[in-house]
Amino acid sequence: MAAWRLPDTLFGRLVIVIALVIAANQLALYLFVRHTVGTARAQRMGKLFAGQIDVVREIRNHVAAPAGTGAGTLPLVTGAVAGRPPPAGSELELAQRALQVQLGSRASLRLSDHNHLWLEWQGQHPFSLSLPPYSWSTARLLFLYWKFITIALLAFAGALIALRQINRPLSRLVAAMEERGSHGLPVTASPAGPREIRRLIQHYNGMLTDLRALLDERDLVLVGISHDLRTPLTRLRLGCEFLPDSAQDARKELIRDIQALDEILDQFIAFSRRGQGEDWVLCQFNDIVTDAVERFSNPPFCLRVIGDCAPLPKVLIQPLGMRRLLDNLIDNARRYAPGEITVRTRLVGDLIELTVEDRGPGIPESLRPQLGRPFAGVSQGVSGTGLGIAIVWTITRAHDGEVLFENRPEGGLRVILRFRKSHDHLEKA
Asked: Which CATH number fits the domain that encloses residue 121?
């Protein structure tokens, strides 16, 4: 049998806490009222019963009861009747105690069949007096029971309304945090609810504004650096063309270094953009994969890239971002694991799965958590900026996907990307 657990939501837990508090309060109120009101009622009933017995005793002292009378003809019978004493701890027992305080132990209460109540006197002229049936049934305080239940239900309904005032703005805040806007950051939320929650939302919105300003400034700096550096790089490239034929080897080295610097700038700009400004398009993902495989299979790369694409439906993506993602994955395999590269696509439930496999040494498991961080992919002896996998991470997250790394049993690294066929971006576009 599974152990009972608290609800996972704040609303569910608060409902249970408030329900328990209300139930404990109503129970305490019921016990208090039962003790005070019930005891008072029992005292009054005991005095009333004593007065009735006194009246009947006076009558019996002057007038003999007719022989053979019974409960069916008169409420008074001579002698005792077959019955049982009141239940222990009941209000009738309290009333019997009050009665015996007035008249002694010769007076008592008896319950016959169908809970019919009798006053019994064992004095000089014993008798049993039948009482109206309502006398003890109304002692159960049914009215108070229903009153307590009604109060508890009203209090619980009021608590639910109060909880809704707290839970609704919190739910909107969580929805805003799950939605992605510019720079991949969450969107702002409208302040609503109690003052404390409004202040929380205002501080959250202020934090997002500061982060966006910081990222915009970073992008501006990177674009400015790129612009300022490309001009001297272009002059260097032109200068290399005017080098004498005797310096052909040096010219090739210089041109190769200039191209590497230009690629580094492109990587920095790509990382800073994070897919911003590109529209979402419903297109065939396999076409982008096939284009990337052909591009790396032909000059100047001439790699052994194998494409294995299963039939896929059209998917909502950012085409330029996905091309950059594939280029980084294949180029990363080329740099770190020379040899055959396999690119596969398939449909897994509602997910598009992209797999890129190489034949290199793989990655130690201890280093995998670092992948995706900027510059974490740089290794000694291999050229690169260390931003390739970081760009893959950012583009995949922009598509609500995940990236997995695992070593192939036969050797090499397998990178697996999964993302949904459809995204919320379609509704927001």
From this structure: 3.30.450
For residue 5, being part of any structural domain is answered with: no
Contact assessment for residue 345 and residue 309, using Cβ atoms and an 8 Å cutoff: yes
CA–CA distance from 374 to each of 274, 390, 413 (Å)?
A: 13, 5, 19
Instruction: Assess contact for 137 and 86: CB atoms under 8 A.
Output: no
Number of domains in the chain: 3
Chain segment 81-110, per-residue pLDDT in tens:
777 888 787 777 888 888 888 888 888 888
CB-facing half-sphere around the CA of 187: CA atoms within 13 A: 10
pLDDT at position 72, please? Answer: 43
Decide if 119 contacts 53 (C-beta within 8 A).
Answer: yes
CB 323 within 8 A of CB 288: yes
Examine the domain organization and report whether 337 and 369 are in the same domain.
yes
User: 300: cis peptide before it, omega within 30°?
Assistant: yes
Parts of the chain with a pLDDT under 70 = 1-4, 10, 34, 37, 60-74, 114-115, 132-145, 183-184, 267-268, 270-278, 372-387, 422-429
Examine residue 67 and state whether it is found in any structural domain, yes or no: no
For 352, phi then psi, to 5°, come to -90, 125
Q: Which amino acid is at 368?
A: R
